[in-house]
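SUBJECT: A protein chain and its fold
Encoding: whole-number codes for local backbone shapes
RECORD BEGINS BELOW THIS LINE
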Amino acid sequence: MIDHLKIAVSDFARSKAFYVAALAPIGYQLLMEVPGKLTGGHDAAGFGVPPKPDFWIGAGGPNVPPIHVAFRVSSRALVDAFYAAAMSAGATDNGPPGLRLHYHPNYYGAFVRDPDGHNIEAVCHDAESA
């Protein structure tokens, strides 16, 4: 089981603001910030559903190639809300909300690129009417 992951971002303040807005609809909050003096030189911010962060961003050169992170959500409406919030926060479209039947019949996801080009997805695997 994965406990947490961290991606590198080129503009920490911009990316932190992006993720605060983009992840809010799915219940993720900025839960912790750790200064670079405690992390080996790079400021870090942890997001998650309280009480524990499981998705982190850290200042530095962005990962090359960009990373793909998928957040599992409980409804298609949350996928739609994530996509709208991320686009409003400055994301680039990488696949609007919809079924991805090539994965399985109930795979409903949306994909955006964050400010550093990371492919960020919200996905619902449950069957429900569209």
Observations:
- Residues 76-88 form the longest helix (13 residues).
- The two ends are 31 Å apart (CA to CA).
